[in-house]
Every structure is written in structure tokens, then in C-alpha cells.
Write a structure and sequence with these properties.
By secondary structure, the protein is an alpha+beta fold. It is built from 8 helices and 15 strands. The strands form 3 sheets. The chain has a 7-stranded antiparallel β-sheet with strand order 3-2-4-1-12-9-13.
Length: 308
């Protein structure tokens, strides 16, 4: 299945440790998810930027160069395993629409009702490819404009989707400016959080750690750039064997504002038209259930649980 990554930090940092060097870095994950690679970020002027190509991250020299040098407070990255649509730039995540960066892991059906909803909100102009993810992103963008905030826009868009179209999974990352939103809905695809914010009275779990060290049974990596930086990482799987990784709950939404304050909420009702993997087409089902990955994830979940 597609893999998601997001970083929110209290000052601009590089993410090369997570993207390139960690035991379970995004580059390593791209060996199972080789249909596209993309990185979105907010630059020094506060403008959203996206670079993406329909190639595997481990084969992309441009991705490696950017991941090693880019500095930002907010980043979203995605490696794609297609659910049946063609491998083009237009179908590659993240999507950049009216200053909002979005990336998705999962499957939903783009129905006539959803097309009408997006069109009524004036967002059909944002569709350039053929993926369910882009239609969902357009609805998020339109609802954010209507509601006035990214958090409320994501909640409104996904609540409408959950009540009106068949859904297997809509795990979502969205960023605008220095805001970041993450959603796990429902519990079919995993989404994990590592909270390394320094203790500052806002409930952060970190303790002002110094040099960040990541390790597994076979690999160890360090980052001096992340020393004493408060940060939150969100990813489709734990990227090292740190026991502080937390699996997000089903229906959970995380919101990080420009000050680094993190809010958890559960704004979504039950899905009206839930899909099981047996309901998906062959390509979509295959994109959600890679057997080798599933076995590896189960073993790692057991190992993390044993460390707690």
C-alpha cells in the first residue's frame, strides 16, 4: 500500500534521517511502493511547494538530493503503490491545490454524488488526474475554503465522504502554512505518531532530547540536525524501533498549529458505506495488502509492544 510521512518541527530542519537513512526510511519503503514519489513542503516565504515524479524513491537521484538538503518546518512525503490508475505525474502524491498539500493512503469510490459535490463547491478545476485521492483532496481544499480553517475543512470533507460514498480507508495528511492535519479513518491501514516535542507545558511527550538516534536490530543512524528540536513525525509505519511510536486510533484526527500545539479529536461518525478488502477490485485490493509487508509489520508491532 502507499506509504505516508509527515514532519512538523519547531524550526526548519532537514528530514534526511527519516527519508533516507533510518532503518525503515521512506526510501526503503519505496521498494514495496515503486509507482511514484513525492515531497511537499513549506518554504522560507511560507509558500507551499511540491516535487513529484512517477518513479520509485530508491531510483530517484533528485529525491535523494532534495531529501538531504531541504530545510522546512512542515513536510509531507508519499511513495505510491497504484490501485489501478496509470503512473503519471498527475496521479502522483502529494497534491498541491490552492496552497494546500495533501497525500492519501487507502481507497474510496469516486461516485457521481462526490463529483457533483466537488463541482458544486467550485473545485472540479483542481482535478488533473484519475485518482480517488485527488478527488478527495479537491473536496478537502474546497471545504477548507468554505470553513475557513484546515482542521475544519478536513473534518467536513471526510465526514461528508464517510456518510455518502463507499470507503475502505482515507488515511490523510494535509498541510497549509505551518499547520498539519493527520487522519486515520478507519482502522484498516495503520498510521503512527512519534511525538518528540520538548516539554513546554502543552502536553508534549518529548523531554528535550539531544542528538536523535534511530536503531533497529541491524542498523543505527544519528541526526545532529534534530538535536533539541521539538518535532512530531507521522508515518504509515514506525521508522525505527523506538518504543515511543504510537498507533493512531480509528477515526482519530491530529492537528498541529504554527506554535507546535497538538490536538487530538474524534470528529467522525461511523462510515455509512464501509468497504472490506473483498469489495475492492483486484488492483485496488493488491495495493492494500502486500503479503510480505504485512508479515514484516506484524513482527515489528510485536517487537515494539515487547519493548514497552
Amino acid at each position: 500500500m502507499c506509504r505516508l510521512f509527515a514532519l512538523h518541527a519547531d524550526r526548519p530542519v532537514t528530514a534526511d534521517l527519516w527519508l533516507l537513512e533510518a532503518p525503515y526510511s521512506l526510501v526503503q519503503q519505496s521498494r514495496f511502493n515503486a509507482d511514484g514519489t513525492g515531497l511537499g513542503w513549506v518554504d522560507e516565504q511560507g509558500q507551499a511547494q511540491v516535487l513529484k515524479r512517477p518513479v520509485a524513491a530508491y531510483r530517484s537521484e533528485r529525491f535523494s538530493q532534495l531529501a538531504a538538503t531541504l530545510r522546512s518546518r512542515v513536510m509531507i512525503a508519499h511513495v505510491r503503490l497504484s490501485s489501478g490508475t496509470v503512473h503519471t505525474v498527475e496521479n502522483t502524491h502529494p497534491f498541491l491545490q490552492d496552497g494546500i498539500i495533501t497525500a492519501h493512503n487507502g481507497v474510496l469510490e469516486v461516485t457521481d454524488a462526490m463529483r457533483r459535490r466537488v463541482t458544486e463547491l467550485g473545485a472540479a478545476r483542481l482535478i488533473h488526474g484519475s485518482t480517488d485521492s485527488e478527488w478527495m483532496s479537491a473536496l478537502v481544499t474546497a471545504e477548507t475554503e468554505r470553513c475557513g480553517s484546515l482542521r475544519d475543512g478536513v473534518a467536513a470533507a471526510l465526514e461528508w465522504i464517510g456518510q455518502n460514498v463507499p470507503v475502505y480507508s482515507v488515511n490523510l495528511l494535509a498541510a497549509r502554512g505551518e499547520e498539519l492535519v493527520a487522519v486515520r479513518l478507519p482502522a484498516k491501514n495503520e498510521l503512527w505518531v512519534l511525538d518528540r516535542r520538548a516539554s513546554n507545558g502543552d502536553g508534549g511527550a518529548g523531554e528535550g532530547r539531544h542528538e536523535l538516534e534511530q536503531s533497529s536490530s541491524s542498523l543505527r543512524a544519528r541526526s545532529a540536525d534534530l538535536a533539541d528540536v521539538g518535532s512530531v513525525v507521522i508515518a504509515s509505519e514506525p521508522m525505527d524501533d523506538d518504543s515511543d511510536w504510537r498507533l493512531m486510533d480509528s477515526g482519530e484526527m491530529l492537528h498541529l498549529d504554527g506554535e507546535g500545539h497538538l490536538e487530538r479529536s474524534f470528529p467522525f461518525g461511523q462510515l455509512a458505506k464501509p468497504l472490506d478488502i473483498e469489495d475492492l477490485g483486484l488492483s485496488a485490493a493488491a495495493s492494500q495488502a502486500h503479503a510480505a509487508q504485512a508479515r514484516a509489520h506484524e513482527a515489528r508491532r510485536a517487537a515494539l509492544a515487547a519493548r514497552r
